[in-house]
Write a structure and sequence with these properties.
The complex is a heterodimer of chains A (310) and B (199).
Chain A (H helix, E strand, L loop, with lengths): L10 H18 L2 E4 L7 E7 L2 E5 L9 E4 L5 E10 L4 E5 L21 E6 L6 E15 L5 E9 L10 E3 L5 E6 L8 E4 H14 L5 E2 L2 E7 L2 H7 L5 E8 L4 H4 L7 E5 L2 E2 L3 H9 L7 E7 L2 E7 L2 E2 H4 L1
Antiparallel strand pairs in A: 1-2, 1-4, 2-3, 3-6, 4-5, 5-6, 7-8, 7-10, 8-9, 9-12, 10-11, 11-12, 13-20, 14-15, 15-16, 16-17, 16-18, 18-19
Chain B lengths: L2 H22 L2 E6 L4 E7 L2 E7 L9 E5 L2 E11 L4 E10 L16 E6 L7 E12 L6 E7 L10 E4 L4 E9 L2 E6 H16 L1
Antiparallel strand pairs in B: 1-2, 1-4, 2-3, 3-6, 4-5, 5-6, 7-8, 7-10, 8-9, 9-12, 10-11, 11-12
The chains are: A alpha+beta (310), B alpha+beta (199).
C-alpha cells in the first residue's frame, strides 16, 4: 500500500510507545521462565547474583526445576526457601550474574503512576499496561504476613505473569506480581518487602513467624470491669481455642481467658495480637495481661517460630 | 503534579483524540441480516472493505454503514483460516491506512483498537503489544496478541500503532487478550483476491 494519507502525527504517543517497549526489553533481560507446573510456565526475576524470586504457588517442586534464562539458555534451579504467607519463593540458579534486575524506587510511586507487568510465559516476554490503582498500607495477607505497602493494579496479570515484575516506565523493577495472594486480585509485593523476606530465606530457609497457638475473638467489657481494673480499653480478646503443646498451652492459658494487654499494649482486635507478636525479638518472652475468673493475672509466654515447623 | 507532567498528559490526550478522528474515517460498520454487527476497514481508499469472515456470513444480505447511511455490499473473497472477508462496497471511501509489519512490533508498544464494540459506535481502546504467535511451519507471524480490551463488535476493526499504522485486524478474544490477524496477511489476501478476479 502507499504511504499514509492520514497525516496523523502523534509524537507524544510515539515517544511513550517506544519508551514502554524499551522498558519491557530492559525488564525482560532479568526475567526467567520457570517450568514447574503442568500448564504454562510461570515467571521469575533474577533478583540477586545466583538468586531468582517467583510466586511460590507456581513452583510445584523443590529440586531440578527447569528454568529458561533471559538469553534463551536452559538451566536447573533448586529451592532456597519459601514463605507461604507472602507466596514468595527463592531459587538458587547458576550462571545468571549478568541478568540481575535493576530495582526502581517504590517510594516515588503514586496512585495513577504508569506501570507495566512483564512476564515470560514461554520463550518470549509478554507485557500488559496500566496504572497503580491503589496503595495499601499495613496490609495483612490472609495467611497473616504483614506488608507495609502493597500495590493494587489496574492492569491484567495474565496466565504465566505471577512471579514476574511490575516495572516503571524506565524498566526498573518495582516488585513481584502475584494473582493468588489476594484471591485473584492482581497485587504487587514491593521490592523492599521482597528484599526483607529474601534476606530471611537466605539466612535460615524460612521466614520467622512467631505464634503462641491461640484463637481469639473480640469481646466487649462491661463498664464496671473497665473501672474496677483501671483498663485502657473496653474491648479485649476472648480465647476460643488453645492448640495442644503450643506456647500458650505451656504457659497455662485456657479457653475462656480474656486477653487484655500484650507487653503493655491493649488488645482489642485479633490483629493487635499479631502486631504484638511480630515486635517480640526471637527467643524472648512477652507478658500477657489476662482476665480470668474476675481477676487480672500476668502470664509470660515465649512465642514459637511457625515458619520453622513447615 | 508538575506543570510539565500535566502538559504531557494533555498532549497525549489530544494525540489520542487526533488518532481516533483519523480512525473514524477509515472504518465502517458491517451488518448481515438480523445478526449482530462488526467493524470493517475501508481498503485502498475506496470501494473495498476488509472485515472478519465471521462478520460477513456467506449467503446473507450484507450492508456497510457509516455516518448514518447504510449501503449494500457484495462479498468478493473469503479466507476462512485467517478469518478474513473482502467486500465490494462501491460507494464508500476513506483515507489510506499505512500498514506495519508485525515483525517490527515489540512487547510493550502502545496499540489501539477502533470499532463498534457492543453496538457502541466509534470506540477507541488503548493497550500494549503482549506478544506474537508464529506459524509452526514457516515461522512467520500468525497472530498478534495485545493487552487491549475488545468486545463483540470490535471484530474486523483495525489495531494500529502509536502513529496510526495498521498492524492487524482484531478478530477474537482469548483468555481476555485481544487477538489480531497481522496486516501482512491481510494485504496478501486482498492482493490474491483481486488478482484472481482480474485473471
Amino acid at each position: 500500500m502507499s504511504p499514509s494519507k492520514s497525516g496523523n502525527t502523534s509524537s507524544t504517543l510515539t515517544e511513550l510507545s517506544s519508551q514502554l517497549a524499551a522498558a519491557v526489553e530492559t525488564a525482560g533481560n532479568s526475567i526467567v521462565a520457570i517450568h514447574a507446573r503442568s500448564r504454562i510456565p510461570s515467571s521469575g526475576i533474577v533478583w540477586r547474583d545466583g538468586v531468582v524470586v517467583s510466586a511460590s504457588h507456581t513452583v510445584k517442586r523443590d529440586e531440578q526445576i527447569p528454568v529458561t534464562l533471559p538469553g534463551g539458555e536452559s538451566t536447573v534451579a533448586t529451592t532456597i526457601g519459601r514463605d507461604s504467607a507472602t507466596d514468595l519463593i527463592a531459587l538458587r540458579i547458576e550462571g545468571a550474574k549478568s541478568y540481575v534486575a535493576t530495582k526502581a524506587d517504590t517510594d516515588a510511586l503514586k496512585v495513577g503512576s504508569l506501570v507495566l507487568a512483564v512476564g515470560r510465559p514461554g520463550r518470549d516476554v509478554a507485557a500488559s499496561f496500566g496504572i497503580i490503582s491503589a496503595i495499601g498500607k499495613g496490609w495483612r495477607t490472609w495467611q497473616g504476613a504483614r506488608i507495609d505497602r502493597v500495590f493494587r493494579l489496574d492492569l491484567a496479570v495474565y496466565d504465566g505473569f505471577s512471579g514476574g515484575p511490575l516495572v516503571d516506565a524506565s524498566g526498573g523493577v518495582l516488585g513481584v506480581n502475584n494473582s493468588a495472594l489476594a484471591r485473584g486480585t492482581p497485587l504487587t509485593l514491593p521490592a523492599t518487602a521482597v528484599d526483607r523476606i529474601l534476606d530471611e530465606l537466605l539466612e535460615r530457609g524460612h521466614v520467622r513467624r512467631p505464634f503462641v497457638g491461640v484463637a481469639a475473638q473480640p469481646v466487649a467489657l462491661s463498664a464496671s470491669l473497665v473501672k474496677q481494673h483501671g483498663l485502657a480499653d473496653d474491648a479485649a480478646l476472648l480465647i476460643v481455642s488453645v492448640a495442644d503443646g503450643s506456647p500458650a498451652d505451656s504457659a497455662g492459658i485456657t479457653v475462656g481467658d480474656v486477653l487484655l494487654e500484650a507487653n503493655g499494649a491493649s488488645l482489642s482486635r485479633p490483629t493487635d495480637l499479631l502486631d504484638a507478636l511480630s515486635s517480640v525479638p526471637s527467643g524472648d518472652a512477652f507478658r500477657l495481661k489476662v482476665l480470668r475468673g474476675g481477676t487480672v493475672k500476668s502470664v509470660s509466654v515465649t512465642p514459637a517460630d511457625r515458619g520453622a515447623r513447615q | 503534579m508538575s506543570a510539565s507532567m500535566l502538559g504531557s498528559a494533555r498532549a497525549m490526550s489530544s494525540n489520542l483524540h487526533g488518532l481516533s478522528e483519523m480512525l473514524r474515517r477509515t472504518v465502517v460498520e458491517v451488518r448481515s441480516g438480523e445478526s449482530g454487527s462488526g467493524t470493517g476497514i475501508i481498503w485502498g481508499g475506496a470501494g473495498l472493505v476488509v472485515t472478519n469472515a465471521h462478520c460477513a456470513p456467506r449467503n446473507m444480505l450484507l450492508e456497510v454503514g457509516g455516518e448514518g447511511k447504510w449501503r449494500g455490499a457484495e462479498p468478493l473473497a473469503y479466507h476462512p483460516q485467517h478469518d478474513l472477508a473482502l467486500l465490494a462496497a462501491p460507494s464508500v471511501n476513506g483515507p489510506l491506512l499505512e500498514t506495519r509489519d508485525a515483525e517490527s512490533l515489540r512487547a510493550g508498544e502502545l496499540v489501539f483498537a477502533y470499532g463498534h464494540p457492543l453496538g457502541i459506535h466509534d470506540s477507541l481502546a488503548m493497550g500494549v503489544v503482549h506478544g506474537i504467535t508464529r506459524d509452526d511451519r514457516t515461522g512467520s507471524p500468525r497472530w498478534i496478541i495485545a493487552d487491549v480490551r475488545l468486545a463483540p463488535g470490535n471484530s474486523g476493526g483495525p489495531l494500529v500503532d502509536a502513529e496510526g499504522r495498521l498492524v492487524g485486524i482484531n478478530s477474537m478474544v482469548v483468555n481476555g487478550l485481544g487477538v489480531a490477524v497481522p496486516a501482512a496477511l491481510v494485504e496478501r489476501f486482498v492482493e490474491r483476491a483481486l488478482t484472481r478476479r482480474a485473471a
